[in-house]
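Appendix B, example 12.
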Amino acid sequence: MSDGISSQGTYIMLGSGASPQTFAEIPECSTIPGPAGTSDELDFTHLRSTGGYREYKQSFKDNDDMTLECNYIPGDATQAALRALYLSGDVTGFVKHYPDGSTDAFDAYVKSASSPAAVGDKLKFTVTLRVTGAPVFTSS
């Protein structure tokens, strides 16, 4: 039997940007990716590389964008704050909470915020975060 757990109960919180920072949950998210990253690589291959194989070392790391998909909640203060952060470009803190009590804390700016509408579908609130710096994972 698997030791994996359900994602049910995962949520993400938006920081106030104040000191000390307070957090408010971004309501009714159905998709919360990452943070996930990739790294650049440096090619250190030389003419005497063993077996004729290329040799690489890791270089700078970068985080992928995180696009949250949530239900649109009319008049919600947190969704309004995310739209305001898009306009300002300010970087603030976010914390993703997992059902086992672990967290991912990171700083990001709001790269986009929208409310896509489609025939036969619910009204959504979609926000893309651009993570800046290193996320900090804390195990439960």
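The radius of gyration is 19 Å. The CA atoms of residues 41 and 58 lie 5 Å apart.
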